[in-house]
């Protein structure tokens, strides 16, 4: 048995390819966790926007002004969470603007497929939805109509 001088290959079974695949798995795993957190964060932003829109609407003085203020409140909530308002839609459903009327604000937000720090958001991944409902105060003055207040 002859032995090659200078070429000892003992310990080379788990070589450089193991490191490369380990780094790739780490990078893709990190992106997966980041994407999952992005969807959760988008849901929190949509919930806050729906809540603020409904609350602002029921505190308004006239229907047109209340709707404009509700859209502004929803936009402020989305942007306050570091999200883009262009990806959100707001739907305000109401019977009438009177005492005891129910107002429901529904916000849909299109969460990006991938978020990479310093590079931004790319693609459209999931659409998260949130709803919040409020009643106009039954003892409120200045609305004129009695509304649907029951005994």
What does this structure look like?
The structure is a single chain. The protein has 151 residues and is an alpha+beta fold. The chain has one domain (20-135). 40% of the residues lie in helices and 25% in strands. The chain has helices spanning 16-58, 63-80; strands at 88-94, 102-116, 120-135. Strands 1-2-3 form a 3-stranded antiparallel sheet. A hairpin with a 7-residue loop joins strand 1 (88-94) and strand 2 (102-116). Helix 1 runs antiparallel to helix 2 (63-80). The radius of gyration is 27 Å and the shape is rod-shaped.
Short note summarizing the structure:
The protein is α+β, with helices and mostly antiparallel strands. Helix content is 40%, strand content 25%.
Break the fold down into its secondary structure elements and pairings.
Layout: H1 16-58, H2 63-80, E1 88-94, E2 102-116, E3 120-135
Antiparallel strand pairs: 1-2, 2-3
Helix pairs in contact: 1-2
Number of strands: 3
Report the end-to-end length measured between terminal Cα atoms: 104 Å
Q: Note the total helix count.
A: 2
The helix content, as a percent range, equals 40-55%
Features:
alpha+beta; 40% helix; 151 residues; rod-shaped
């Amino acid at each position: 048995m002859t032995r090659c001088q200078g070429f000892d290959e003992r310990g080379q079974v788990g070589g450089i390819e193991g490191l490369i695949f380990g780094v790739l798995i780490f990078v893709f795993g990190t992106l997966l966790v980041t994407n999952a957190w992005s969807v959760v964060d988008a849901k929190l932003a949509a919930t806050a926007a729906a809540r603020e829109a409904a609350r602002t609407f029921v505190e308004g003085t006239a229907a047109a002004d209340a709707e404009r203020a509700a859209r502004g409140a929803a936009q402020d909530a989305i942007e306050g969470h570091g999200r883009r308002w262009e990806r959100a839609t707001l739907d305000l459903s109401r019977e009438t603007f009177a005492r005891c009327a129910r107002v429901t604000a529904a916000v849909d937000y299109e969460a990006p497929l991938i978020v990479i720090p310093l590079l931004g958001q790319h693609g459209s991944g999931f659409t998260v939805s949130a709803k919040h409902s409020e009643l106009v105060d039954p003892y409120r003055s200045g609305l004129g109509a009695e509304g649907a207040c029951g005994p």
